[in-house]
Amino acid sequence: MRKALLKKDIFKKVRQIQIYTTKMVDEVLSGAYKSVFKGKGIEFEEVREYVPGDDVRGIDWNVTARMDSPYIKLYVEERELTVMLIVDMSRSNKFGSRVQMKNELAAQLASALAFSAIKNNDKVGLLIFTDRVEKYIPPKKGKKHVLRVIREILFFKPSGKKTDLSAAINFANKVLIKKSVVFVMSDFYDEGYLKPMMISSKKHDVIAVHVRDYLEKSIPAAGIVQFEDAETGEIVLVDTNDPSFRKRYEELTASNDRNLYRKIHSMNIDVISVETGKSVLDPIEKFFRSRAKRSMAR
After folding, report:
1. Distance between CA 64 and CA 67 in Å, rounded?
2. Measured between alpha carbons, how far is 167 from 89 in angstroms, rounded to an integer?
3. Are 129 and 98 members of one domain?
4. Which is deepest, 87, 138, 141, 272, by most CB within 10 Å?
5. Rounded CA gap, 275 and 254, in Å?
6. pLDDT profile of the chain (298 residues), mean per 10
7. Torsions phi, psi of 119, nearest 5?
8. How far from each other are the two terminal CA atoms of the chain, in whole angstroms?
9. Which of 245, 246, 223, 227 is nearest to 236 (CA)?
10. Residue that is last in its domain, among 78, 96, 130
11. Total number of domains in the chain
C-alpha cells in the first residue's frame, strides 16, 4: 500500500512539473530555443526549377545545362542537436527555505529545456553527480524519455554527499562525441572545475546554471540560529539579530557570486541564475534574449 502511494506521489509531482513547463514551452520558449540553438549546419535536400524571386546564387549550373532551363539547389537546416543536463545532487542541493528545494527548481528548469528540445526533434541526456558520477542516461528523443529525466532529478537518491564538478564535466567530455548543448546545474560549491569546464567549452556550447536559495544570499533576523554545512556536517551558532553579521554575510555572498560569474564569463560561458520560490521563466527568457541579441550583432 505504501509503495503504491509513493508511486502515486511521484507521478503527481512529475505531472505537475510537466503541465507547468509544457505550457511555458508552448507559449514562450519553443521559438526562442530554436532560434538560439541552431542546428549543426545545412545539408542539401533537392533541386527544383528556378522561379522568379529565387536567389540566383543557388542555381545549380550542372543541372541547368542538362535540363536546358534554370534549376536551383535547396538546403535544409541539419536540426538535430544533443542537449545534456548535468545536475548537481550533492547534499547542498537538497536544501530549500521557501516552497521548494533546489533540486525541485533544477527539475523545473530541466523540464522546460528538455521539452523545448524534443519539440524541436533534439535529443536530451542526463548526468547526475555528487562527489562522483551517480547516474548517466544517454541522450534520446521522446516525451516518455523526458518524463524519466524529470523523475530522476526529483527522486534520485545519491550515494555521495559532497560535490565534484570536475568528475562530472570530465565524464561528459568523454561520452559526448559530437558537439552538444551542455547545461551544468549546480550551486557551484566546489573548486578546481574551471579547467575542465574551459576544455568542455572549446567543443560544446556550455551554459552554467547557478541554482540558489534566497537564504544563501541573505539571512533574516531570527535570533540565535544553528547552521549545519550540508556537505561537511560542520555546525556553527550564529546571532542573526546582529545587523553587522547580516551585512557582512550579504556582502560576502554577493562578492562570491560576482567572482564566480566573472570567472565563468571569462571562458565565454553564459550563466543563468535561478532561485527557489521564483519562476524559472524570467531567467530563461533573459538568457534567450541575450543570446539572440549577440547573434544579431555578429
Report:
1. 5
2. 13
3. yes
4. 87
5. 14
6. 57 79 80 76 69 82 87 69 94 71 87 90 94 96 92 90 94 93 94 94 96 82 71 74 85 91 94 89 89 72
7. -65, -25
8. 60
9. 227
10. 78
11. 2
